[in-house]
Design a protein that fits this description.
about 25% strand, disordered N terminus, about 35% helix, eight-stranded antiparallel β-sheet, three-stranded antiparallel β-sheet
């Protein structure tokens, strides 16, 4: 056996040659995936044959592309045609992972650009150029600024990716421009959430639909609202600006809002935005 042992590799040598940890090799042995060619009965040291290194290459490759360890043995036993079918399936699995990661990258980029983009100064009506925004909107009745809560948007959460928490302007409302005498007069026609993902969604609920906020020039005002008076005064400032300057509007008012978590008090950040004729 001494002569044979000289042709074998110790577990440490295999670890270095194949760039795999000793812990992994021991685990492979334990689950019966890759057992040593010889175990010294006196020392219990594991030894592997030169031929086994080729098999370990296959195991590492299959593991690298995401094959579960308990499936590798079955893959090794496949005939050529079945092995090709297996690889075709793995290609599809990898493509789906790539598509998913690309979608996540696009979501992160969208949020990052939105945060970095220069916004209007607080409390001032400004003209902004905005890109098209895809939204999910839901028709509502009897809701306005004073009785719309975070829970009012719960039905949207099932459609969006799990990134709502770190993006700004995650929700909003749509209502017409009017001669509002008090905040009580404001009735939302729609609540909405912007779509960050193009992935296939579950069927929309009743009174819920996909829509688009068009690309174009918008009059916008952003405010910090700690009271409903703050909210109403900012809205009035936008409406008065439109009337005073005889601006031709092309949409209802789109309201975006979020909470400023960096403040000890719950301070809402509202943006009122309306599309105008170019």
């Amino acid at each position: 056996m001494e002569e044979d042992k000289e042709k074998l590799y110790s577990i440490g040598e295999v670890s270095k040659l194949m760039n795999i940890s000793i812990k992994a090799l021991r685990y492979y042995d334990k689950i019966g995936l890759f057992k040593p060619a010889y175990v010294d009965p006196n020392s219990n040291y594991r030894y592997y044959s030169d031929f086994q290194l080729y098999r370990l290459d296959l195991i590492k490759s299959l593991s690298y592309i995401g094959t579960q360890l308990n499936q590798i043995k079955k893959v090794e036993e496949l005939n050529n045609d079945d092995y090709i079918s297996f690889l075709i399936h793995q290609e599809q699995v990898v493509k789906e992972k790539i598509d998913y990661l690309y979608e996540i990258q696009q979501i992160i980029s969208s949020v990052r650009r939105d945060i970095q983009r220069q916004e209007a100064p607080f409390g001032e009506v400004v003209l902004l150029e905005k890109e098209e925004i895809k939204i999910i909107q839901k028709r509502v009745q009897g809701l306005g600024p004073q009785n719309t809560f975070n829970s009012s948007f719960s039905s949207f959460r099932k459609y969006g990716p799990s990134t709502e928490g770190f993006r700004k302007k995650g929700y909003g409302s749509i209502f017409p421009i009017g001669e509002y005498k008090s905040i009580d007069d404001i009735n939302y026609h729609y609540l909405f959430t912007p779509l960050l993902s193009n992935k296939k969604m579950m069927p929309l609920e009743r009174d819920t639909e996909l829509a688009i906020l068009p690309k174009g020039k918008y009059l916008s005002i952003i405010c910090h609202s700690t009271t409903f008076d703050d909210y109403f005064q900012s809205l009035q400032k936008l409406i008065q600006f439109i009337h005073k300057n005889e601006v031709k509007i092309m949409s209802d008012i789109y309201e975006f809002f979020s909470i400023n978590y960096q403040s000890d008090e719950h301070k809402y950040i509202n943006e009122f935005r309306v599309l105008i004729e170019e």
